[in-house]
Predict the structure.
Amino acid sequence: MVSCARLRRLLAIREQPFEIPPMSSSLTKGLRRSPTRSKAKKAPAKTAKRAVKAKASAVKAKARRAAAAKPVAARAARKTVARKPAAKPKVNTKARRPAPKPAARKTAAKKPTVSRVKKTQKLAAVRAVRPTQTAPPPPRQPTVDESAALGAFERAHKEFVRGRFAEARNQFRILVDKYSQVSEVAARARTYLAIAESRLRTESMLPRDADSLYDRGVIELNRGEYVAAQEMFERALKREPEAAHIHYGLAATRARLGSIDLALESLQRALAIQPSLRVRAQHDHDLNPLRNDPDFDRLIFSNPS
């Protein structure tokens, strides 16, 4: 047990003030300045951190508010959509007039009957206007004069095709004079009559002997007038049927015209009369259309029998 006197002594020692020894001015200045400087240095960093934290908290708060507001807005929109049909009954009572409705129904019921009547009337009118299909009338039989004129025209045309222009001219003249009332046949006869007379005039201007006709045919052949050349050679052969050079010229002209068979016949006749023409035929360009034919090779390159 501690005595009371000792306790008093200990209490007295504690109650004595603790005196701190005085420090130098330089140390006190350093101690005083150091906390302010550290505070000054740490203050900006703390303020920046606080600002960042404040912004983050504000953003989070806005996000929470928006998230909380979305369901509220959706609910409000749903309520407005659900409530909109209820607002439709607010219509003016004046627009709903019960009196005009029966009239409209009556007119709507009457219209189809009118349209049906009109349609039936139109159909009846169309059927009445449609012409009935009748059989075509039989062809008109020619009269006696028409049939006679047609027969005379056919006979004169045959003479014209054969090249007997003088006889064709005489028959066409008789037809025009006798059957002038048959207009169509007479008009055709006049056309052929003019052609026959022009051909006879050209024949009168042509030479008469075979050699002159052959020379004229060679000129037409070189000019490319193959039809005229064929006519000249045929006229020359009428005057000299056994002239080999005329048959050869006719063969060359027919080859140019594409009449292969007739050209080979004329060439065969020419070679039969004068076999030496084979040498000329081997290099003649006018006979080129015949070279692919085997009969040409037989005629030109085979030994004469």
Notes: Residues 27-31 have pLDDT under 50 and may be disordered. Residues 127 and 133 are 13 Å apart (CA to CA). The radius of gyration is 67 Å. Residues 25-87 form the longest helix (63 residues).
